[in-house]
Amino acid sequence: MAYETILTDTRGRVGIITLNRPKALNALNLTVMDEVCGALAAFDADDKIGCIVITGSDKAFAAGADIKQMQPLSYQDTYAQDLFAGWDAATRTRKPVIAAVAGYALGGGCELAMMCDFIIAADNARFGQPEITLAVIPGMGGSQRLTRLVGKSKAMDMCLTGRMMDADEAERSGLASRVVPLADLMDTAMEAAEKIASFSLPAVMMAKEAVNRALETTLTEGLRFERRLFHSTFAFEDQKEGMSAFTEKRKPNFKHR
Ligand code: CAA
Q1: I want to staple 55 with a disulfide (CB 3.0 to 4.6 A). Which of 100, 195, 221, 255 is the partner?
Q2: Region(s) of the chain under CATH 1.10.12.10
């Protein structure tokens, strides 16, 4: 499949999506949205893929939604087309998605990274929701996902002042899961993705579903949901294989990957 604004590749059981509008610092126009969502859906449906990595360039993961494309739009335009609702498709990906972020992850770039399951940041990464400087507000989930990830105080600070957070602050705040030197970013993300893709895929998908549930429900309901999914893992052949391999002191050979 030939794309205009992204590159796709596979390495082993990992699908890689690279945002590729270098002249615009990977600004997210509507073509990027359609192509990223399309590539995610294609990897999700591909039996040979167990995990997906989204990345950008060393200078920018993505510097936000495309301001030049948005600038002439009226209220009617944005409302009628439900601008950016198309990104919801990205969050319906059932296989894990890792964001490997170097450089700017601003506005929609930060929001796309937060749609992923976790963020591995290079030490030059800078996160921010600078929409307020344009007299708009986040429109791809920034006010909601950032608040859930870093808490109200820091999310307010980011959304109201438009300041950027460096990689260390992002890790400290729970936005990034780890920070690595820029030169190691892709190796680290690929190592994590390959590890995930080596496990039993239905168990991996259930773990993702269970963690995501925590953001949507009460603790009592979430614990119940987790327990029911946990019980259902005992229907997997791979559960027998995983536990047998442990007791027999050998490597598991999972069938459902
Ligand atoms: N949209 C469109 N074009 C963008 C862009 C964006 N979000 N960000 C950068 N570019 C373009 C610039 O216009 C420039 O293009 P030209 O060479 O044709 O002028 C090119 O990318 C390089 O950018 P700069 O010259 O500005 O590079 P810099 O290194 O001096 O600055 C930067 C980098 C600080 C990231 C700066 O580009 C910047 O502030 N970008 C905008 C960040 C922003 O406000 N993002 C939020 C967008 S709104 C949004 O995302 C809404 C939402 O929630 C969905």
Answers
A1: 100
A2: 200-248
Statement: residue 61 has pLDDT above 90 = yes
How does DSSP assign 47-115, residue by residue? Answer: TT--EEEEE--SSEEE--B-HHHHTT--HHHHHHTTTTGGGGGGGG--S-EEEEE-SEEETHHHHHHHH
Fold of 6-197: 2-enoyl-CoA Hydratase; Chain A, domain 1 (3.90.226)
- Is 65 near ligand 1, meaning CB less than 6 Å away? yes
Ligand 1 atom at minimal distance to the Cα of residue 137: 53
Q: How far is CA 42 from CA 3, 47, 54, 88, in A?
A: 13, 10, 14, 16
142 ligand 1 Cβ < 6 A: yes
For the record, the structure tokens of 74 come out as: 């009226």
User: Residue 256's pLDDT is what?
Assistant: 86
* Probe target for ligand 1 pocket from 19, 23, 25, with the most ligand atoms within 8 Å of CB: 25
Which CATH class, in words, describes the domain spanning 200-248?
mainly alpha
Q: What is the pTM of this model?
A: 0.98
Q: Residue 136 pLDDT more than 90?
A: yes
For residue 257, which of 177, 203, 216, 206 has the smallest C-alpha distance? Answer: 203
